[in-house]
Design goal:
This protein is an alpha+beta fold and about 650 residues long. It is built from 25 helices and 21 strands. Among the domains are: about 210 residues, 2-Layer Sandwich (Nucleotidyltransferase, domain 5); about 130 residues, Up-down Bundle (Taq DNA Polymerase, Chain T, domain 4), CATH 1.20.1060.10.
Length: about 650
DNA sequence: CTCCCTTGCGCC
DNA sequence: AAAGGGCGCAAGGGAG
C-alpha cells in the first residue's frame, strides 16, 4: 500500500438527515417517494493552516453532491467519515452510486476498531460491557476532550432558520472532529493494520449501495412458506393437544418444563443455572427434546412444533413484514462492516430501541436464514439480474492448515483431495482411496463414513470436547453416537492433525506474551485480562479462533476489493455476505463470462501484495447461480 | 407500558 | 472440573 495521510487530500464528510417521520431519517431508500432527505451536508477541507467548510450547505441537492464527488475523484481525495456507510447510502439514494464507487473512502470508526477492538466475554451470566465506538459521546471525549459538549441542544428535525443554522454548525463540527480523530488513530496503527483498513475501506461503497437498494422479497414465496409451516404446526398441535399441549405452553420454557417433568413425569436431563440469580431451571432445549424423544415419541412432535412456530415468525413473516414496512417490496437488512471483533460483517434488521414501540422492522435475520430451499427462495434477484454466489471453499479448514502448518491438513488441501473422506476413513478404519472411490460410486455406507469425517473435521478444529461432539452428532446429524465413540474420534482427530493441538498451545502462549492476536494479514485484536481467571478459557479460544476466523474476514474484504472494478464494469452489484460467501447480482447477459472471470480473480487473489504472505496451498472459490437464493446450483465450468 | 434478563436457536 | 468461536432475533417473565 502506498497511501499515506496527506492533509491536503483528506476531506471529512457527513450528512444530517430527516424525513416525513423522525425514524425515516435513517431510511435513505424512502428518498424516491419524498419521505427522506438530507437536511444538511458537511464537507471539511484542510486549507494548509486549518480545517474549513468546503461545500457545506443546508438541504443539499443531487447536483451539489455530484459536484463534491466529482471533485473528490478528480483531485484524488480520500473522504473520511464516521460510520460513513450510512452517508454513502444517502448519496446512493440521490442517484450517485456510480460516482461513489470511484471515490476513496475511509471511516474513523472503523479505524478505531482496528486500533483497539476487543472481544466481549460472557461467562456464566456475567459479561463485559460492550465497548462503544461512537463519535460522541465516546470518541470526542477520548481523543478531543476540548471539543466535547457541542452536541447539546441540537434538533435533527429542525425547520426554523436559527435551528437549521445550529444544525449545520453541529454537522461541520462532527466532520472536523472526525478528521482530527481519524488522523490521530491512523498514525497509531501499524503498517499492516493500515493496509487491512484500506482494503476493507474499498468495500464500503458496495456495502452502502446494497443497504440502500435492499433485497427483493418474493411475497408469494413468503406466504406459501408461512402457510406450509402453519399447516405443519396445526398437525403437530392436533397430535399434542390431547396431552395438554397448547401454543402458550410450547412458547414458554417454564411452562413446557412443568408439562414435561411434572405432568408427564419425564426425567430432567439438563439444568441451567443462572449465575446472576443462582436460580436453577430445567432445560427444554432441543438437545433435551432429542434425547427424551428416544423414550417418549411425543417429544419429537414437541420439537417439530416449536421449530415450526419459531421459523414461521422469523423466516416467513420476518422478510414479508420488513418488505411491507420499507414500502419498496424490498427488505433492508443493514450490513455492518467489521461488526464482529473478528472482522466479519454482521446484519441489523431493526431500527429503534429493541422491544419498545420505537422498534422498526427494516430487515430480517439474513445471516440466520435456514438452509432449506423453501426458506431461501424468499430472496430473489432484481428483474434482469441473476444471483451468483462465490464461496471460499473449505475456508476455515484451509486457514487452519496454513496457520498450524500441519502437514496432513496441508496435503489434504491440494487439488483432488477430500479431507472429509480422509477423516471418515481414519475414523471408520478404512483405506482413504477405497473410501473416496466408494463415495463417488454413491455407496450409502461410504457416504455415512464421509459424513462422520465431516462432523469431526468441522467440530473439532477449535477444542471441542468429546462430550460436545457426541451432542452435535446426535442432535444435528442424527447420528446415534455414544461417548466412547466420541472419545475415540476425538483422539483420532488429535492423532491425525498433530499440528493442530500444537497450534492451540502456541497461539495461547504467543497471545499471553503479546496481549493481542493477529490475523495472517496483520489485523489485530486486543486480548488482555486475567488468563487464570474466569475468562481464561475464552481468552485462549480467542487466541486460537481469531487468527483463523479473522483471516477469513480479511480474505473476504480482499475478494470484494479485487472484484469491485470488474463488477462496476459489467453492471453487477454486491448483494450480501455470508462470511465465507459473496452474493452478487449480475446482469443476465453477463453471467456466463462473469462465472469465469470472477472465479479467476478470486482464485488468484494478490495475498502477497496485500498481506505480504504467499499461501502454500491453493485457496479456490466455488461458484453457484440461480434466480433465487433457494435455487442456487453449482456452476459447471466446461 | 418499558426495561432488563433469560432461554432457546438460526447461520457460518 | 469442564469449557469451540462468532453473531442477531424471538419470546417469556419479573420489576417497577
Amino acid at each position: 500500500m502506498t497511501w499515506t495521510w496527506d492533509d491536503a487530500k483528506v476531506v471529512a464528510h457527513d450528512f444530517e438527515t430527516s424525513g416525513t417521520l423522525p425514524e425515516y431519517a435513517l431510511q435513505p431508500w424512502r428518498k424516491g417517494v419524498g419521505d427522506f432527505w438530507a437536511t444538511s451536508m458537511s464537507v471539511i477541507r484542510h486549507n494548509g493552516a486549518k480545517l474549513e467548510p468546503h461545500g457545506s450547505r443546508l438541504f443539499p441537492q443531487a447536483e451539489h453532491m455530484r459536484t463534491f464527488l466529482e471533485q473528490a475523484i478528480a483531485e484524488d481525495w480520500t473522504v473520511v467519515g464516521w460510520n460513513i456507510v450510512f452517508d454513502i447510502s444517502v448519496l446512493c439514494a440521490y442517484g450517485l452510486a456510480d460516482l461513489c464507487h470511484q471515490v476513496k473512502w475511509l471511516d474513523g470508526m472503523l479505524l478505531w476498531r482496528h486500533l483497539e477492538v476487543e472481544p466481549e466475554y460472557e461467562f456464566q451470566g456475567a459479561a463485559h460491557k460492550k465497548k462503544s465506538y461512537r463519535l460522541k459521546p465516546g470518541g470526542v471525549e477520548r481523543w478531543l476532550p476540548m471539543m466535547a459538549g457541542y452536541n447539546e441542544d441540537v434538533d435533527f428535525h429542525a425547520t426554523d432558520e436559527e435551528s437549521l443554522a445550529k444544525l449545520q454548525l453541529y454537522n461541520d463540527k462532527d466532520s472536523v472532529c472526525t478528521w482530527i480523530i481519524a488522523k490521530q488513530i491512523w498514525h497509531s496503527l501499524t503498517p499492516q493494520q493500515q493496509a487491512c483498513a484500506l482494503i476493507e475501506a474499498q468495500s464500503l461503497s458496495m456495502i452502502a449501495e446494497t443497504n440502500y437498494l435492499g433485497l427483493p422479497i418474493d411475497g408469494i414465496a413468503c406466504s406459501e412458506l408461512a402457510a406450509r409451516l402453519a399447516r405443519t404446526a396445526d398437525e403437530k398441535l392436533a397430535i399434542l393437544a390431547p396431552h395438554g399441549v397448547t401454543e402458550t405452553i410450547i412458547r414458554s420454557p417454564l411452562k413446557l418444563a412443568a408439562l414435561l417433568f411434572d405432568d408427564w413425569g419425564l426425567p430432567v436431563l439438563k439444568e441451567n443455572t443462572s449465575k446472576k440469580t443462582g436460580k436453577v431451571s430445567r432445560s427444554t432445549d432441543k438437545e433435551v427434546l432429542h434425547e427424551l424423544a428416544l423414550q417418549d415419541g411425543r417429544c419429537r412432535d414437541l420439537r417439530a412444533y416449536r421449530e415450526c412456530l419459531n421459523n414461521r415468525t422469523k423466516f416467513a413473516e420476518g422478510p414479508a413484514v420488513s418488505a411491507a414496512y420499507c414500502g419498496d417490496s424490498r427488505s433492508h437488512p443493514a450490513a455492518i462492516p467489521f461488526g464482529t471483533y473478528s472482522g466479519r460483517l454482521t446484519y441489523g434488521s431493526k431500527q429503534g430501541k429493541a422491544g419498545t414501540k420505537s422498534e422498526r422492522p427494516t430487515g430480517f435475520a439474513l445471516h440466520q436464514e435456514k438452509r432449506d430451499k423453501e426458506f431461501r427462495r424468499v430472496v430473489t434477484a432484481p428483474p434482469g439480474y441473476t444471483l451468483m454466489e462465490f464461496d471460499a471453499s473449505g475456508q476455515e479448514f484451509r486457514w487452519m492448515a496454513i496457520a498450524s502448518g500441519d502437514e496432513t491438513m496441508l496435503e489434504l488441501c491440494l487439488p483432488g483431495e477430500d479431507p472429509h473422506s480422509f477423516m471418515g476413513a481414519r475414523v471408520t478404519m478404512q483405506e482413504y482411496h477405497e473410501l473416496t472411490n466408494k463415495v463417488q460410486e454413491g455407496d450409502p455406507l461410504a457416504k455415512d463414513a464421509r459424513q462422520l469425517g465431516k462432523v469431526a473435521n468441522l467440530s473439532l478444529q477449535y477444542r471441542t470436547s468429546a462430550r460436545k461432539l457426541r451432542v452435535v452428532a446426535r442432535v444435528q446429524y442424527d447420528i446415534p453416537m455414544e461417548l466412547p465413540e466420541a472419545q475415540r474420534i476425538h483422539r483420532t482427530y488429535a492423532n491425525t492433525y498433530r499440528g493442530v493441538p500444537v497450534y492451540w498451545g502456541r497461539q495461547i502462549a504467543l497471545t499471553r506474551r503479546m496481549g493481542y492476536v493477529e490475523t495472517l494479514a496483520g489485523r489485530r485484536v486486543q486480548v488482555v485480562g486475567n488468563w487464570d481467571g474466569e475468562w481464561g478459557w475464552s481468552m485462549g479460544s480467542t487466541a486460537i479462533n481469531y487468527r483463523i476466523q479473522g483471516t477469513g474476514a480479511d480474505q473476504k474484504y480482499l475478494a470484494m476489493a479485487v472484484i469491485k472494478p470488474y463488477l462496476t464494469r459489467i453492471g453487477a452489484k454486491f448483494a450480501w455476505d455470508l462470511h465465507d460467501g459473496v452474493y452478487l447480482w449480475v446482469p443476465d447477459a453477463k453471467v456466463q463470462q462473469a462465472a469465469v472471470d470472477i472465479k479467476f480473480l478470486l482464485d488468484n487473489l494478490p495475498y502477497r501484495q496485500a498481506w505480504g504472505i504467499t499461501p502454500p496451498i491453493p485457496l479456490p472459490w466455488d461458484c453457484k447461480a440461480a434466480s433465487t437464493w433457494g435455487d442456487l446450483k453449482e456452476w459447471h465450468y466446461t
